[in-house]
Amino acid sequence: MPLSSTPSFALHRSAAPLVMIIGDSFTVGSGPVGGWDSYAAQAARAMGWQLVTAGASGTGFVNPGSVGRTFETSFDKELSWRPPPSLLIISGGHNDREVSPGTVHQAVERLLELVGRRWPRTRVVVIGPIWMAKAPEWSYQVRDAIAVAAEEAKTPFLDPLGRSWGSGATLSDGVHPTYEGHTKIAQWLVGGLRKYGFGPSA
């Protein structure tokens, strides 16, 4: 077939901002709540964003989980080779139990440095660990380590720890959000992002 007769395909660039997020089971979806209904997806729809989700259940800044990769590895393997987004959200810490706060701090610091080198113009927001029920004491130490690393990198930090998400927000496992719980987290996230100036035109 002559080259001139091959079909041509036009690529159309969407005006919607590209946003990426790295996270754990809260972010990628779990149980009866799929990734398309997660708080990240719901927030993206509310903000009019294109969303690319990375990460996996059980993972954290330090904990590689059963899939064998931390957030840094997920960034490297799933996101870093893509065109830079307008915004990168890094959300987690729930799975970084039995890890010293210093180790968590170093992991967050290293990831933020890596993102900054790879995508110097991309804005970044860090979200601390999410707990639907009462959070254990160690989670506050993890939260603080993440918050300090974000502050040192001059990166906005959103803290969901200690919030009450209300009845009907938690699955029977006592850990993960229901669809309603994801909706409440999405509403909280959208409000927090808008306070930092992130909106439909970010």
From TrEMBL:
Pfam families: Lipase_GDSL_2
Xref: InterPro entries: Ester_Hydrolysis_Enzymes, SGNH_hydro, SGNH_hydro_sf
Gene3D superfamilies: SGNH hydrolase (3.40.50.1110)
SGNH hydrolase-type esterase domain span: 22-183
CDD domains hit by this protein: SGNH_hydrolase (cd00229)
PANTHER family to which the protein is assigned, alphabetical: THIOESTERASE 1/PROTEASE 1/LYSOPHOSPHOLIPASE L1
Official protein name in the record: Lysophospholipase L1-like esterase
Organism: Streptosporangium lutulentum
Organism taxonomic ancestry: Bacteria, Bacillati, Actinomycetota, Actinomycetes, Streptosporangiales
